[in-house]
């Protein structure tokens, strides 16, 4: 779910009303959103980079609302769309009507797609916003919306890449081509040196934000590029725009182009951008169309700005949600949700107009959902289903709950730790190498604390011990939860494994304490003790060597001659790595074989 940050004072100014934090949270909830956090730019920088970074950046103390937006509501990813949606929801304005306006002189901007682009990114769409006025807040919102769309519907620019240009600095008609890297030369955005394709790839290979987009085209024999009539490069999608056509606060006419591997997504992105920011044009909610000449010679006009009609049944809407409202009331609720609706001749049918901003509405069920949001989920009466259900608890979860109660009764305190941890936690601190661990790695970790999915419950419990080391001894902790293990034999390359882990921390290691817990659990599971050499089913301990445990003080837990876990006294270097000063013994084993 995307999160947007909007400045509180600017938001209240646009809404023409001031709210308390609680009042605005209530408004967001009624509209189907969630006010995630009330913060400031300085607080966010301090949390992410520390006090020094926040001070050096001269961060603002202005209050920022961070709002969670549903992933399918692309129209709410900027302040312009959010404000319009809330004002329509409150009934203060009617849903705006977007229109196409032909340019003065009647000559549209033209973009021609050359056949070579089929090798790399075959589609392109374009539009123009005329006589637009951007202040700093609107400019920042314009850039932020593009970034949010790139991360969301554009799938990190693999499906769609957006380029925005100052139309007054370039000359149409434009051509969308695919050329070899050596034949592309231009000055990238905010740079002073001209580069070819290869030099540009090398230059941005260490860039914090742009390096992730280079692999999309790097290995292709040709790179996509957009030129104007004078041979000026507008952009090299999906990596970077040219510096020549960059927009600024002085820009009055914006040329927007979207190149794509998915034409439908490109249309959605273009419609969203022009609808949101046409509110800043001199003629509000007006967009100038562009002609895109396809490789086969046909001409298509963009943006489409299509308004679709959907006919729904009020009776079906009531039945789906569990309410009983009249057709007129449902039509009014839909209009508040940015979907203009009217009843058909006092009948059951309701005609709903789907605007170009609401590409998330695909089926009648999507319309029913908006009715439920406008009605208020908390206002829907709870009722029992009209038919019988026969269900049972998932066996593994049932066993987990039973064991939690019994282990707690054995004198251990339950902990609930993070599923993600650092590479050091599961490897170096346990005297192992990360290469030897079957760990699932996070591709782009935001912090050093969350780099891999845990392969063992032990580090989480040891960190919990550290956080509670001022408590009186003994400290006896346990956790029953999932770990994730890389496994090439599974469909997704990894599998979950439910484990029980317990740690005893005291002046002496107390191996007998965790051994006693193991025996108690096996007694509850009705698994008998057996010797290693005897026949039949049961469990026993088999000496083992593990770098995480003290030499000669570690054993495999064998169930029916198969190792399901380990028990032992932790190695002093492991304790030192986790900043513990008292001896610990631990037991950890897989409980899935007992289901």
TrEMBL record:
Keywords: Aminoacyl-tRNA synthetase, ATP-binding, Cytoplasm, Ligase, Magnesium, Metal-binding, Nucleotide-binding, Protein biosynthesis. It catalyses: tRNA(Phe) + L-phenylalanine + ATP = L-phenylalanyl-tRNA(Phe) + AMP + diphosphate + H(+). SMART domains: B3_4 (SM00873), B5 (SM00874). It is found in: Cytoplasm. Residues 305-382 form the B5 domain. SUPFAM superfamilies: Class II aaRS and biotin synthetases (SSF55681), PheT/TilS domain (SSF56037), Putative DNA-binding domain (SSF46955). Its main location: cytoplasm. Its cofactor is Mg(2+). GO terms for cellular component: phenylalanine-tRNA ligase complex. One of its GO terms (molecular function) is magnesium ion binding. It is an enzyme of class 6 (ligase). Its EC number is 6.1.1.20. GO terms for biological process: phenylalanyl-tRNA aminoacylation. PANTHER family: PHENYLALANINE--TRNA LIGASE BETA SUBUNIT, PHENYLALANYL-TRNA SYNTHETASE BETA CHAIN AND LEUCINE-RICH REPEAT-CONTAINING PROTEIN 47. Belongs to the phenylalanyl-tRNA synthetase beta subunit family. Type 2 subfamily. Tetramer of two alpha and two beta subunits. This is Phenylalanine--tRNA ligase beta subunit.
